[in-house]
Automatic annotation (TrEMBL):
Protein name: MucR family transcriptional regulator
Domain of life: Bacteria
UniProt region (Disordered), positions on chain: 82-122
Residue spans of biased composition, Low complexity class: 82-105
Length: 232
């Protein structure tokens, strides 16, 4: 082996052996490099393109995170709520004032009662006539009881003491219900005997003397104002 034999010079045979040895070492070295690359994942840092492809493959193989791991659960998100507002209660509609009803009863607010002496003065002992006047002052027709028992005129002295009443000694009874038209006035004349009286006609009757007096009338619960009267 160490001394080649052949027709060619000895140097030729040594060069051939050297080439074969170098080829054998190259094959062995390449195989070792491939084994190391396979064992370490195929990246040696010498080829950037190969490393990028390997990284892309690793990213593609990574599991996609679940949606709930990326976005918070809607149940866990606190949604701000508007503060409750207190609205002022709506004003209640005001009821329209009830006006007089046509054909209904004449209330005390719908009529006036007045006393009018036929003469402003009378001699002592005379028998003057006083008128009780009932007027419908409302804008509609209404119904009112005008019975004699509901009418009264009284005479008062200057101190306000009662001297006479039209129903004291000769009360009258009647049933008189009427429909009074707007502005209509009804007159009831009352004759005075010129003597004093008390309710029930139980007191002695006397003749009032001269002086200034006051007449006052009523129809049931509706009273009149005062009217002046003079005895001479």
């Amino acid at each position: 082996m160490l001394h080649p034999v052949g027709p060619l010079p000895t140097a030729v045979y040594w060069r051939r052996r050297l080439l074969v040895l170098v080829g054998t070492l190259g094959v062995l070295g390449g195989g070792s490099w491939l084994g190391v690359a396979a064992a370490t994942g195929g990246s040696t840092g010498a080829d950037p393109a190969s490393d990028s492809l390997a990284a892309a493959g690793a990213t593609a193989d990574a599991p996609t995170p679940a949606l709930e791991q990326v976005l918070p659960s809607l149940a866990a998100v606190e949604v701000p709520t508007a503060a409750p507002t207190t609205s002022a209660p709506a004003p209640a509609p005001s009821a329209a004032p009830a006006g007089p009803v046509a054909g209904g009863p004449c209330t005390d607010d719908m009529i006036s009662v007045d006393v009018r002496p036929e003469v402003p003065s009378s001699p002592v002992g005379g028998k003057p006539t006083f008128d009780l006047v009932v007027t419908n002052t409302s804008p509609v027709a209404c119904v009112r009881a005008l019975d004699k028992g509901l009418q009264e005129i009284v005479l008062l002295d200057g101190a306000g003491d009662r001297l006479w009443g039209s129903n004291d000694c000769f009360p009258e009874a009647s049933s008189d219900t009427r429909t009074l038209q707007p502005g209509e006035a009804v007159v009831f004349p009352v004759l005075w005997s010129g003597l004093s009286s008390a309710p029930g006609c139980t007191a002695d009757r006397t003749t009032p003397g001269p002086g200034s007096y006051v007449l006052r009338g009523r129809l049931d619960t509706k009273a009149s104002g005062d009217a002046a009267f003079t005895l001479t």
